[in-house]
Amino acid sequence: MVGIVAFGAYVPRLRLNRQAAYDANKWFAPGLRGLAKGERSMANWDEDSITMAVEASRDCLTSHKAEDVRNIYFASTTHPFKDRQNAGVIGTALNVEQNLSATDIGGSLKAGTSALIAGLNASRGGAPSLVAAADKRMARVASANELNYGDGAAALLCGTENVIARLVGHHSVSMDFVDHFRGDEAEFDYGWEERWIRDEGYSKIVPPAIKAALAACKLKGSDITHFIMPSLMPAVPKQMAKMSGIGEGAVRDLLGATLGDTGAAHALVMLVDALEGAKAGDRIMVVAFGQGVDTLVFEVTAEKDKLAKRKGLSGWMARRKEEKNYMKFLAFNDMLPIDKGMRAEFDKKTALSVLWRKRDMIYGLVGGKCRVCGTVQFPRSQVCVNPNCHAIESQDPYAMAGLECAVMSFTADSLTYSPDPPAYYGMITFPEGGRFMADFTDSDKEQVKVGAKMRMTFRIRDNDTMRGGFKRYFWKAAPV
Amino acid sequence: MARGIKDKVAILGMGCSKFGERWDSGAEELMLEAYKECLKDAGIDQNQLQAAWFSTAIDEVHVGKSGIPLSTTLRLPNIPVTHVENMCASGTEAFRGACYAVASGAADFALALGVEKLKDTGYGGLPGGRGGPLQALWNANGTAPGNFAQLATAYMTAHGVSGEDLKKAIGHVSWKSHQNGAKNPKAHLQKAVEMDTILNAPMIASPLGLFDCCGVSDGAAAAIVTTPEIAKALGKHDIVSVKALQLSVSNGSESGHNSWDGSYFHTTRIASKKAYEEAGIKSPRDEVSMFEVHDCFSVTELVTMEDLHISETGKGWRDVLDGFYDADGKIPCQIDGGLKCFGHPIGASGLRMLYEMYLQLQGKAGPRQLKDPRIGMTHNLGGAPRENISSVAIVGRYE
Question: Which pTM value belongs to this model?
Fold first, then answer.
């Protein structure tokens, strides 16, 4: 039996108040007033689809070993790299390299479900597959998309042991219905009229697809307990359910009021949302629309209640900070030619040979543990750092990303360039041993104190815009 | 312990340029300005120099690498010139090289010259972005103020000092240096400042405000050293000799091992202890007449006075508030204005501190002259609290 073994999610801490965004733009686009309610998630300046996918994957692997994962599928329409495997970065961040197949899936808003289908099929033989989906889509200033979109990620572990949601069946159709597109040279989506998309697209393409999927699963519409279908038009999922004989009560909330639409990740984000509250026997249908339709049907098993607690979507949603500063949203998304000063001009060129040699340190936050004295240290070095040891070549790799740490000293620096000043950083110490001067992220004055507990999180450190946007990733400390 | 170099080396002459934002000068002009005064004071001919040590720390923004810039600027007589760089301890490092050359007998006359020209970068503060390709991938996005601000947070935590008390004490450190700097015509900042202005200044890196940070200055300083015997033979009197020169460099235990609490300078404790031994000083609080220490930030000076074993650990802030280190206190500190007001051209700073000691010991310090000083101590700190070079020099009257 193949299915979902574990789930995880990630949502950035900041939530842009839509009214604040609307207030800034209403002089130009008063027609957006209807969308000026609730909030959307907003990635910090140091987050992209890779960093969010890493966090969702870590959440998903709360009670599973990353090294058992044999396949990683990473779905997004905003992969940070066109040529450099994005899924491979996730693998390295999770300290998985050997016996791993990594695949990027993109090009459509149904990339998330396509990746899930691939992951499930790859796991049929017993090899666990991690499916991560994340999107951080840009939208034009004063557009509906700007208010509707959200940033976020989901991850699902597929396998055959301790399955919490059994795959009942899946079905796909592919057709080049272009409701919107983003060309190779474009930053933003370009879309056609909504009424046409609804009447000629959704209404004519989705119901037959659902019908075929139900037939393949030998189920009726009324058998579905949770119906998941992302759409920027809130009435559409209800309409599709009705046309397919699925009860109105089964239609899941689109999470638009608090999160926004997370693009290729959204079907899986909504699936995680459903799984969190689902009971054994519940049947979940996931439908994703984008140049065709993917439909998957799951049945929740009794194993679901045994799954170890994790943050999940609800946990990350609860970690929230309202952002009413629309200018900050623009600046974080590089939509504002803000005066960064000369300190922002330092060259960010990365020595790729160094990155390769030190990839476990930089991407995996792997330190060392001395075999002679037991001291944990970061980075792993040739000579033990313990002043009473100094043994040579005595350290085994020691993964530190999952360890909680504490602030020993810190500052809020207004001199250094930071996209979000002041820059918080400080010495963090790990109770197991080891310390280093780390950048902090998602930090406020009220949270950062000597002794405060911190958690390591995978983030963008620098963006080398001189060379086409090579993102340097490293780990930062964030308040627990 | 080795015998050390106490009284084996005498300072024959010194010079120091005007420090400040020297828009009129490049590094070459600054070098010559300090050197002219130094050579004249030494009273020898340039052709008598047998070796030179040249210190700059951020040479990529002015003269570039090697000993060539010094040799070509001064047209030295094709003698060995060694370029030294040890961050903010570079100036003392150049002096150490010259002294060791004389003490060993390898040279009768050796020159140490330090320079830094920082005000051609286009922005305030020290140039950033240094470090190798690995550091660039993981070092925190920090600045010097941010690193030293953490000394303040750790110090408060370690000794239960309130934010208010510490802010007052470090404010007094800067207030005192401004009082002193006002009497120094070569200082970058020559204006006394009110306490209220200091305490209410904009924050640079909390809890350090604008007046807790030393400025960035251009400048150069130089020394010519020889043996006391040669100095006497040249007719010098009031000879100032080197009593001790010590350096201690972090080996990563503070930055990487959980035994350090961030509230003190491990290296300064070691370097100063060795220096007192070399100089034969038993009770530094009673024997040292004056200090020039590395007050890159006000809190650095406060903590340094503990690590030099003058103030009791955790009590230095009380000594500061009691005026112990003021110009009219028991042991004046930064009588020339310190890095805070004299200025901090990195590669020159160690030599600038020695210049003030040299003037004071010879009674040539003008309106800021102290009464009968016998022993002067200088201290530099290169790097950050968690990883640094601490250099200590003790000079005194040759008796």
Answer: 0.95
